[in-house]
Amino acid sequence: MSVAFRRESDDEHLEPAFELPLPPGPNLVTARGHALIEERIAALEQEITATAEADAVKKLRRDLRYWLTRRATAVKTPARDDGAIGFGNRVRFTLSGKRREVTLVGDDEADPAGGTIAFSAPLARALLGAEAGELVAFNGREDAIEILAVE
User: Which one of 48, 85, 86, 97 is least enclosed by Cβ atoms within 10 Å?
Assistant: First the structure.
């Protein structure tokens, strides 16, 4: 049989396992976000210790490398307190006639369903720097957002 038709192993046909992508830009975190990173690292270390399957351990180690990098690059950032919207602030506003309330947080801490959005999200970028009473452009409309309160 020709060498061209011989298969050494099944592993050579698997897709490569890439590292988890890091969000671009600075890794700003709130105090809560930093605590969540620490909790995630501790949980992954425990899972690695308790897991015997090699493939599962490889995936867990990849996740752990991601979170260790996020911890190493984390910049604890306090909320802005000058009345303008910034990282860490809770904002009440109306968008398309609906009242909403969100807190601007780091990429890893964001949970839109829970009322937190990443500071890098388009909505957050539109809100940054605005103050209560201002109208803010968003999604092609100059007065799409009305800022009600900044905490």
Answer: 97
